[in-house]
Design goal:
- The complex is a heterodimer.
- In chain A, strand 23 and strand 24 form a beta hairpin.
- By secondary structure, chain A is an alpha+beta fold.
- Chain B has 20 helices and 20 strands.
- In chain B, helix 18 packs antiparallel against helix 19.
- The longest helix of chain B is centred in the C-terminal third of the chain and has 23 residues.
- Chain B starts with a strand and ends with a helix.
- Classes of the chains: A alpha+beta, B alpha+beta.
Chain lengths: 764, 491
């Protein structure tokens, strides 16, 4: 859909007038919350001494576990996660106590004076520790098809390896976690929260405060970035803020400073993967066997769903006749890991792509050709028996080859490497086939509420959260398109539990799909009523008999297409409808049909559709220092009928760069005590403007697909994250250019300059 | 505690406000209801809080700074422009409009900072290029856009500058016109108010100084030794924000005329201790006579930080890894140290004593950095290796200067490494080996052994010792390769 309308909040953003959580409607008697968190990974709590903190002038109160009036458990299930622990410390960064004080500095200072006495216990930090201790959440998950052992016996080649993706990745949303809470006069609370999930924040707070859900209102205007980090975990801070307000009976603002945020919030899961991969001389893949271990941290959080998505993406874009994928979610004593764009997908995909890259080297095949040879073709089945209806990766790769002038590029790189002693180039290739939907089927539901006011302006509420991805503009354009009006007529409201209840988190790339469809549903109801009103209006005012099916809504006018010279202004019709007692409000609802998955046999269709694409990147490395620069990136992306091409391009650029950071410079590891080694942007490095390639091209393939969602569009949030991994493979191949002895390249993930130089040294 | 009653211009408004010694520019902006500048990292690493402040002595020029780590008192007698001063949603500034038109804002949290960085760059009245616009954004992180739409917006800005639709008439908000004059009317001296209540932060005073004599007097009078002399404060206010490390008194020397400026005096260049690094980068004297120093400071931190940070700060905090320190040891720079009683000049090489320790006496301060100019027919080179190209601390840095005769014999070499020892140091053993050997015939295996004798790097969050050891060797190979390329000698 083409639209001239840009970012609905854009003019506010560029003038510094947009407001984020805690920046507006601040009451004059606002209190601030300080957090006392654990600096030890595992311990038994002997006592928490709060007296000194309490006695500081300006401190309203100190809150510990026993002050919680409700059920001290915020877990979705499988385990018990206390909001504040009473007996046991389980990770570094676990909130132990809160301070409510007159200002933030005071609250922080008082929090530091809380003395926690504990008896240190031996923690489990690494995946190896967890595996050795068989410390797992829930049952092992196994997805199987064919006869794996037979296939390994018969294949021409079998390779196996251990892949360590043991670095976490920090979301680094620029706006930290924050919630402001205002007590209501009836004992309820209104939470202004920076959350991707109004429902999680509402439920958790209600449970903690022992209040019915309807006493907790959650309101979200916009988020300064989230990337998954504010899906489940923003609820924790909302509930803590709710607790602080409940106990103090004051309005409070809980706003984390950057370092507290980095220490206390979950990241992308570190994974360890053992794979065994069989292929034949002709390059055809025969079998894939993988064991995936995810470091879930001290509480289960979303780890099971993340592990499952990794299992579902282990085949990536390729058909394997024989598969066995086994998954373990490990329980350790690190901060519970959580959602981050891709949600386990990248960890499922990377090892398989690495195995393919190795196979290509063994067979001396072009890494692009070997991939094309094994892409799913239409109506083949995945290892979990989902039919791949529209397999278009080959189509994508053919365009990619042309756009990047692949053969020429290969020649140029070869020549460059021959001519340069210390600088080498490499090409990295990766396709994408990313499943869209919540794999927890019930979450694939969306709601919307539309009011058309007497003056013809429109108020639109929907279940999605605006966090820069412009779900608001996309959904507004769906409604505007349906009603034939300008977007400027529509005000998209804050996400509020009172207007849209039971909203699913804005996550899994589904924000526009489920909420856009719900809004369309509401809009269609209104359009139907307005069409009938128009018929009556035309009869009354123009003595015209119109058939319902002939009445059109276009360019702010309503008319009978057989008598197009007589047009009713939208506002006039709305007012007429109101005067004729026609309901001008509508609730819309949608759920994604066909998502059926049987977890007893691990078969079914967990996704509504797949998003396809491909990416080629060219990297240059300095073989004396390991430093590198991305030079060129070409992306081909299957968008079906995009709701807004420029928004989607922005998502693709952004996701690519996050994925690129993930596999290169974003290194985040724990020390033996379970502390992150990097706790701020001064040591945790994300890409800057200098890290993006000079040539950065996206080709959006605008072909209507059957497998798509609202107005034939496809989701765009997560799939392009995978393209970023091309950077790692480009480095891998650049290193290979100095691999005279043809040794196995052991390049770490992420491939920091250090990892690159060490990999080069190891080839000597 | 002594609070400062400062007077400054905020966009078009004259502001008089009491500020605590510990407060930052960002704290005060938020207090005044200017919320466009955002707090995100609170240590100058993300650029979300970027604002513009007038460039001293240059009318109509503004520099971008990260307001989260700049002491609020520094706003006294200055003009501060925030995102709110550029335009409104119904009357946007051209840069704001271009960012909007190019979809270069997504979540919006970094956007005001990005715009203020671009704005400051354009006020400079220098030739703008794609590269210089990009460089102006090196200190701004964006986690949403992947920067591409921001690059496209800068291209449009460049086009508009080139065809003069963006020019001095519409880059500066109209209120800027009279403000220079109004600023001049503000007295230098700040009214200081004794406030017995120190609720949280234990800083007693923050003083803006205007002469070296005044500084000497302050130091002499003070009983407490718990003070710091600061200019940019870009390191000490990070310490304050993050590690909650406080000193009782801060003496701000950034306005002392004797401590500013870059002068060529015979065969040496004198750089005032308070001269911001960004100005050194822009200095023609430095470009002509010590271009290798530019190489070292060009990629130091970010533009916002370099706009306030100084070489003396880099030396003063005695970081083992300061890029400028390594280069300055390599260039055989000296320091003018002043105390209330005496002055002395010491070689930087002898200044560092151990980890974060120096020969600086308790009542002494750095007043000037004195650098011999580069000699002709001598090779100078600086290399920085870091995890990320820009806005990152070196894993290892090194400086090499060499005199090589026509036959390739290395007559003299100074080779300095940073990040591999407790302070930047000469590779003494390696130098002894390299000297008098032919540059085309160096025994790298033997040199590597000696380099390992010179330095025993540690492992830390940035790198392992193994990697640092490899870099020590490879930096030398790179220096030599660069020499060969530059001098294009035949074997």
């Amino acid at each position: 859909m083409k639209s001239d309308v840009k970012h609905l909040s854009g003019l506010l953003h560029v003038t510094g007038t947009s407001r984020f959580t805690g920046e507006e409607h601040l009451p004059s008697n606002l209190y601030f919350v300080g957090i006392k968190y654990s600096n030890i990974a595992k311990a038994k709590i002997i006592g928490i001494e709060t007296k000194i903190a309490e006695n500081i002038k300006g401190v309203k109160c100190v809150i510990i576990a026993k002050d919680i009036p409700g059920i001290n458990n915020i877990s979705h299930g499988l385990d018990i996660q206390p909001l504040l622990p009473e007996n046991n410390i389980e990770y570094v960064g676990q909130p132990l106590a809160l301070v409510v004080a007159e200002n933030q500095e005071l609250a922080d200072k008082a929090a530091n004076l809380i003395d926690v006495k504990y008896e240190e216990l031996k923690p489990i930090i690494t995946l190896d520790d967890a595996i050795a201790n068989e410390s797992y959440y829930d049952a092992v998950r196994i997805i199987e098809k064919g006869n794996i052992e037979e296939a390994f016996k018969n294949a021409d080649f079998v390779i196996e390896d251990i892949v360590e993706m043991t670095s976490a990745q920090e979301q680094l949303y620029l706006e930290t976690q924050r919630t402001m809470v205002i007590p209501d006069d009836d004992g309820g609370f209104t939470l202004y929260s920076s959350t991707q999930s109004t429902t999680d924040a509402q439920k958790m707070t209600a449970k903690i405060l022992n209040l019915p859900q309807n006493k907790i209102t959650v309101d979200v205007k916009r988020l300064g970035g989230a990337f998954g980090g504010k899906e489940f975990q923003a609820g924790i801070w909302a509930a803590l803020a709710g607790l602080a307000s409940y106990i103090s009976q004051e309005p409070v603002l809980l706003s984390l400073d950057r370092i507290t945020d980095m220490i206390t919030t979950g990241k992308r899961h570190p994974f360890k993967i053992n794979y065994k991969f069989a292929f034949n001389k002709n390059g055809k893949f025969q079998a894939l066997k993988s064991e995936l271990y995810a470091n879930g941290g001290a509480f289960v959080d979303l780890s099971i769903a993340i592990l499952e998505r990794a299992l579902f993406h282990s085949d990536h874009a390729y058909f394997f006749p024989n598969v066995k994928i086994t998954g373990y979610a490990c329980k350790t004593n690190v901060v519970p890991n959580t959602a981050f764009r891709g949600f386990g997908g990248p960890q499922g995909i990377f090892p398989t792509e690495l195995a393919i890259e190795r196979a290509a080297k063994i067979l001396k095949m072009d890494p692009m050709e070997i991939r094309i040879k094994n892409f799913y073709t239409e109506n083949q089945k995945t290892h979990y028996d989902m039919i791949v209806k529209e397999a278009v990766d080959e189509e994508m790769f053919n365009i990619l080859k042309e756009n990047s002038q692949y053969l020429q590029l290969k020649e140029d790189v070869k020549k460059f490497n021959e001519e340069n002693e210390f600088i080498k180039q490499g090409i990295g290739i990766i396709p994408s086939k990313f499943g869209v939907s919540f794999t927890a089927g019930f979450l694939n539901q969306g709601s919307a509420l539309i009011w058309i006011y007497g003056d013809g302006t429109i108020s639109l509420s929907h279940g999605g959260i605006e966090m820069g991805q412009q779900v608001n503009l996309k959904i507004a354009s769906v409604v505007a398109n349906n009603l034939g009006v300008n977007i400027s007529r529509i005000r998209v409201e804050t996400a509020n539990t009172k207007r849209v209840g039971n909203a699913s988190p804005t996550a899994a790339s589904t924000g526009s799909d489920i909420n856009g469809n719900a809004a369309l549903n509401a809009s269609m109801k209104l359009k139907k009523r307005l069409t009938e009103a128009a018929k009556k209006y035309l009869k009354e005012n123009h003595q015209q008999d119109s058939k319902i099916e002939n009445i059109l809504f276009k360019d702010e006018k309503i008319f009978d297409k057989t008598v197009p010279e007589i047009k009713i202004n939208f506002a006039v019709l709305v007012n007429y409808a109101y005067m004729n007692t026609i309901d001008l409000g509508a609730h819309g609802y949608y759920y994604t049909e066909g998502i059926i998955f049987d977890r007893t046999v691990w078969k079914g269709s967990p996704f509504n559709y797949f998003v396809y694409g491909g990416c080629i990147s060219l990297m240059e490395i300095d073989i004396l220092t390991g430093e590198y620069q991305l030079k060129k990136t070409y992306i081909v992306h299957d968008s079906s009928k995009s709701l807004n091409e420029e928004i989607d391009k922005g998502q693709i650029y952004g996701a690519f760069v996050q994925g690129y950071g993930y596999c290169t410079m974003e290194e985040l590891v724990y020390d033996e005590k379970g502390n992150f080694k990097a706790i701020s942007p001064s040591t945790y490095k994300v890409p800057t403007i200098y890290d993006i390639p000079k040539t950065f091209e996206i080709d959006m393939i605008d072909i209507e697909r059957d497998e798509s969602s609202v107005l034939k569009s496809k989701a765009v949030g997560e799939p392009p994250f995978i393209y970023g991994l091309s950077g790692w493979f480009a480095l891998y191949n650049a290193i290979d250019s100095v691999n005279q002895k043809n040794k196995k390249i052991s390049l770490k993930f992420p491939a920091t300059p250090e990892a690159v130089l060490i990999a080069i040294e190891n080839l000597k | 505690m002594i609070e400062n009653n400062i007077i400054f211009y905020l966009n078009e408004e004259k502001v008089k406000i009491r500020v605590k010694p510990s407060e930052t520019v960002l704290n005060i902006l938020h207090k005044l209801g200017y919320l466009g500048a955002k707090e995100s990292c609170n240590e100058g690493d993300c650029g979300s809080c970027t604002i513009a402040i007038n460039n001293l002595g240059k009318i109509g020029e503004y520099k971008a700074i990260t307001s989260c780590i700049i002491p609020a008192t520094k706003m006294h007698k200055r003009h501060v422009i925030t995102i709110e001063g550029l335009g409104t949603p119904v009357d946007t500034h051209p840069i704001q409009q271009i960012i909007f038109d190019n979809h270069a804002t997504q979540c919006g949290f970094c956007t005001p900072g990005i715009i203020m960085s671009l704005f400051s760059k354009l006020t400079e009245k220098k030739i703008v290029t794609s590269e210089s616009l990009k460089k102006s954004l090196e200190g701004n992180l964006c986690r949403c856009t992947g920067y591409q739409h921001i690059i496209e917006a800068s291209e449009e800005i460049l086009e508009n500058v080139n065809n003069a639709t963006l020019n001095s008439d519409n880059i500066l908000p109209s209120f800027c016109k009279d403000i220079q004059r109004k600023i001049n009317e503000i007295p230098d001296k700040i009214e200081q108010i004794e406030n017995p209540i120190d609720d949280v932060i234990n800083i007693q005073s923050y003083t803006l100084l205007y002469s070296i004599d005044e500084l000497k007097e302050k130091i002499q009078k003070l009983n407490s030794k718990n003070y710091k002399i600061i200019s940019g404060a870009s390191d000490l206010f990070v310490e304050k924000n993050i590690q909650k490390k406080y000193y009782s008194h801060y003496f701000d020397v950034s306005r002392i005329p004797e401590m500013l400026g870059i002068k060529l005096i015979g065969e040496t260049i004198e750089i005032g201790a308070s001269e911001p690094i960004e100005k050194i980068i822009g200095s023609d004297i430095i470009k002509t006579h010590i271009s290798s120093l530019n190489k070292a400071i060009f990629w130091m931190s970010s533009r916002q930080i370099r706009n306030v940070a100084t070489l003396a700060g880099n030396i003063g905090n005695a970081s083992p890894i300061g890029d400028a320190s390594s280069a300055l040891v390599g260039l055989d720079a000296s320091l003018l140290l002043i105390s209330p009683k005496a002055e002395r000049i010491v070689k930087l090489e002898n200044y560092f004593q151990g980890y974060k320790s120096t020969i600086l006496a308790e009542d002494e301060f750095i007043a000037k950095i004195i650098i011999p100019i580069q000699k002709e027919n001598r090779f100078y080179n600086f290399i920085k290796t870091s995890k990320r190209k820009n806005m990152d601390i070196s894993t290892v840095n090194s400086f090499c200067s060499m005199k090589v005769d026509s036959k390739g014999k290395i007559i003299d070499i100074r080779l300095v490494y940073g990040g591999v020892s407790v302070f930047p140091q000469l590779a003494k053993n390696a130098i002894a080996e390299i000297k008098n050997h032919n540059i085309y015939n160096l025994d790298y295996d033997r040199i590597e052994v000696l380099l390992k004798k010179d330095f025993m790097p540690i492992s830390d969050v940035r790198a392992s010792n193994e990697y640092r050891n490899l870099l020590i060797r490879n930096h030398l190979i790179k220096h030599i390769a660069t020499y060969k390329m530059e001098f294009n000698n035949e074997k």
